């Protein structure tokens, strides 16, 4: 039997974590499809089509070998000048975090830029982004669940990269406490 490979557990976070992290994209910018990693199989599944007339404002995915209180890996939004296809590995330079509450549960979203995209990798902190970019992210996450059985999401605040680094490190600690040391497959 072939060993099972799961992107969440078997891809490294990257050698420069928490400043630059390996991210796995689930949803491309502009999508109305909510794709997510099936934790059992490691495949990407269509969770649902968004109920409202909104689309993802950035590539959306997760940081491997992280774990959060919502029982999922840590979410990441990656700004990039090109469309990033689902299940693509992207080295992402962390610039901040959006703290939000989804159904009374904390649900932080790391904000990053594609490290190898010259059109965005000059951003070093969330404060460098155009204000409209943050507003667009906030409106998307507050609005996209509003029509889904009156689910309520509140974006509490945006914070800079140092806070994002702390949140990433906390999610790594929780991952290691929950899953222990996993054998790593180096993603090149």
Task: Describe the secondary-structure layout.
Elements (H helix, E strand, L loop, with lengths): L6 H4 L9 E8 L5 E5 L6 E6 L9 E4 L12 E5 L9 E14 L2 E2 L2 E6 L16 H13 L9 E8 H19 L9
Parallel strand pairs: 5-8
Antiparallel strand pairs: 1-4, 1-6, 2-3, 4-5, 6-7, 6-8, 6-9
EC number: 3.6.1.1
Enzyme class: hydrolase
GO molecular function: inorganic diphosphate phosphatase activity; magnesium ion binding
Could you describe the 3D structure shown?
This protein has 188 residues and is an alpha+beta fold. It has a single domain (20-178), classed as Inorganic pyrophosphatase (Inorganic Pyrophosphatase). It is built from three helices and nine strands, in the order αββββββββαβα. The protein has a five-stranded mixed beta barrel with strand order 1-4-5-8-6. The protein has a two-stranded antiparallel ribbon with strand order 2-3. β2 (33-37) and β3 form a beta hairpin. The longest helix has 19 residues, at 161-179. It is globular and about 40 Å long.
């Amino acid at each position: 039997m072939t060993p099972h490979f799961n992107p969440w557990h078997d891809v490294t976070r990257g050698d420069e974590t928490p400043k630059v992290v390996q991210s796995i994209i689930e949803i491309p910018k502009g999508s109305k499809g909510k794709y997510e990693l099936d934790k059992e199989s490691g495949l990407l599944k269509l969770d649902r089509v968004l109920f409202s007339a909104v689309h993802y404002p950035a590539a959306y995915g997760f940081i491997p070998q992280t774990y959060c209180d919502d029982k999922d890996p840590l979410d990441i939004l990656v700004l990039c000048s090109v469309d990033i296809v689902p299940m693509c590995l992207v080295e992402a330079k962390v610039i901040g975090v959006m703290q939000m509450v989804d159904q009374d549960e904390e649900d932080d979203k790391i904000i990053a830029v594609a490290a190898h995209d010259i059109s965005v990798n000059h951003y070093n902190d969330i404060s460098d982004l155009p204000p409209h970019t943050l507003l667009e992210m906030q409106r998307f996450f507050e609005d996209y669940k509003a029509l889904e059985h009156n689910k309520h999401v509140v974006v509490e605040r945006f914070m800079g990269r140092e806070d994002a680094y702390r949140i990433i490190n906390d999610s790594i600690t929780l991952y290691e406490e929950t899953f222990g040391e996993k054998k790593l497959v180096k993603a090149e």
